[in-house]
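ok so for the tutorial part 2 we go from a plain amino acid sequence to predicted structure tokens. step 1 is just haveing the sequence, like this:
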Amino acid sequence: LVDAPVTALQSTGLLSEDGEGSVRDPLNKRSEFALRRAHEAIAMNIKASVATSIVSRVSVAWLKRLSSMLPDSNKRVISGLDRLLKASAFTADTSLDAMIFTSRALVCAVAARRNLWPRARPADLKAKSIVQAFPFQGEMLFGDALQKILIETRDKKKVMPRTLTKGDRKTFSNVHTQ
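step 2 — the prediction. this is what the tokens look like for a chain of 178 residues:
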């Protein structure tokens, strides 16, 4: 989802008629679709890595318990269990690493979507870069930090300011550093 004030700033040629804020330009639309699909695929990869890590950690605990139940006279069985224990520990560690690296890829996909939306916005570069630096929170691309800089129009709609005045720059910088 994209924050409504950000979609309101886009020129009418870029937005759909339904008010959902989808991109209309064919190239940007393909990019948005690809980024959404990448986000979904990366999220599913994170789920799979978490499940693999959990199952591997549980199998390590089970193998430790099983090896403690065996008498010391079963050297070959204990040796085999030790190898399985090491393999399960390795799988648990590598699946956790995969989850961390995949999370980084997810951050890149979100950043790319955040960079796509303000492209056609009629504002100066500083305003765009400040908005893009807002932290990602919740389901919206720009989150609660955006609410602090919005202005209300005559129609009682909240929109982003088109240009920055000296007072706005102070407000922008205060929001950015929080």
